[in-house]
Amino acid sequence: MKKIDLHTHSTRSDGLLTPTQLLERAAGRGLRALALTDHDTVAGVEEAMRAGQRLGVRVVPGVEISVDFEPGTFHMLGLGIDLSNPALKERLEFLQQARRDRNPLIVKKLREASVPITLEEVEAEAKGGQVGRPHFAAVLLRKKVVATWEEAFDKWLGKGAPGYMDKVRVSAADAIGMIHQAGGVAVLAHPVQLRLQDDALAGFLDDMASKKLDGIEVYHSDHGPREEAFYLELARRHGLKISGGSDYHGFANKPVEVGVPEVDESVLENLLKP
Ligand code: AMP
Ligand code: ZN
Ligand code: FE
Ligand code: FE
C-alpha cells in the first residue's frame, strides 16, 4: 500500500510543526503524498512543496474552511487548489481579517471574566502563524488557569463558555464555489463532527450534492470502524468521492499521527480525476 494523508495542519494555522517539519515527519513515515490543509490559509503550502520536493513526498495544496452550521462543526476541505487564484486569495484574506478582529475580543471576554491573558501571549504562542483558539488554550494551560486542554474549551473557550466568540463563516455553497473557482475539489471534512443523526446526515448530503460537493472524508482520526463503513456507504449512495486524512495538528493531548488512519494513493488519484 502506498500511503497518503489528505488532511494536516502546520504552524501557519494551529498545528505545532512547521510545514517543513511536517513533511519530514511524513517522509519518515513513508508517505507518498500529503495535503497541507491549514484553517483559512494557504500560507504554508509553498514551503511544504519545497520540502516535499526535497524529500520525495508529493504535496497537494489544500485549505480547510469553516462553514456556517448548527448544531455541530462543518469544515470543508479544498484539495488541489490553485494558490494564485485571485478570487480564492481574496476570500481567504477576508476570513483571515475576521480572525484578526476576533482575537482581541476573545482576550477582552476572558479578561472580563478575570482570566489573566494578553493578546501578546497568544500571538507568541502562534509563532507568527494565524491565531486560533488552540493558541488561547495553550496559554491557559501554560499559566495553569486550567489543568487540561479539554478544560480550557469546556470552561473558557468552547460554545457557551465566557470566552466564546463566534467566528465569521461562509455558507456551504460559498465554500464549494471558492474551491471550485480555484480548480480544487470540495470535500466534507470529518462528517462525525456535524453531530447529525444518520437519517439527517443522508438528507444533508442530498442537499450538499445539489450544491456540487465533490467528496466526503471517510477516513479520519475521529472515525471508528462504524463511521468508516457508514460514510463509505453514504459516499456510494450520494455519488461522492472519498477522501481521508489524519487531521494531524501535533497536539500533545491527542494521539493522532501523520498517515493514520492509512489511506491509499488511489484515493488521491480518484479525487483529482475530472
Ligand atoms: P478556531 O478555528 O479558532 O475556532 O479553533 C478551532 C479549533 O479549536 C479546532 O480545530 C480544534 O482544534 C479546537 N477545538 C475547538 N473546540 C474544541 C473542544 N471542545 N475541545 C478541544 N479542542 C477544540
Ligand atoms: Zn485546527
Ligand atoms: Fe476540521
Ligand atoms: Fe483539520
Strand order of the largest sheet: 7-6-5-4-3-2-1-8
CATH topology-level name of the largest domain? TIM Barrel
Globular, elongated, flat, extended or rod-shaped: what is the shape? globular
**Rg from C-alpha positions?**
18 Å
Number of strands: 8
Average pLDDT rating = 96
The largest β sheet comes out as: 8 strands, mixed
Named CATH architecture of the largest domain: Alpha-Beta Barrel
Structural class: alpha/beta
Strand content: 15-25%
Bound molecules: adenosine monophosphate, zinc ion, fe (iii) ion
* SSE succession: EHEHEEHHHHHEHEHEEH
CATH class category of the largest domain:
Alpha Beta
What secondary-structure arrangement, pairings included, does this model have?
Blueprint lengths: L2 E6 L10 H10 L4 E4 L8 H11 L2 E10 L6 E6 L6 H27 L6 H7 L7 H10 L6 H9 L14 H10 L3 E4 L9 H13 L4 E6 L4 H14 L2 E5 L17 E2 H8 L2
Parallel strand pairs: 1-2, 2-3, 5-6, 6-7
Antiparallel strand pairs: 1-8, 3-4, 4-5
Helix pairs in contact: 1-2, 4-5, 5-6
Bound molecules: adenosine monophosphate, zinc ion and fe (iii) ion (2 copies).
The site of one fe (iii) ion has 4 residues, from loops.
State the main characteristics.
10 helices; 8-stranded mixed β-sheet; single chain; binds fe (iii) ion; globular; TIM Barrel; binds zinc ion; binds adenosine monophosphate; 274 residues; DNA polymerase, domain 1; 2 domains
Describe the structure in your own words:
This protein is α/β, with parallel strands linked by helices and 274 residues long. Helix content is 43%, strand content 16%. It folds into two domains: 3-92 and 168-272, Metal-dependent hydrolases (TIM Barrel, Alpha-Beta Barrel); 93-157, Orthogonal Bundle (DNA polymerase, domain 1), CATH 1.10.150. The chain is built from ten helices and eight strands. The mean pLDDT is 96. The structure holds adenosine monophosphate (AMP), zinc ion and fe (iii) ion (2 copies). The site of one fe (iii) ion has 4 residues, from loops.
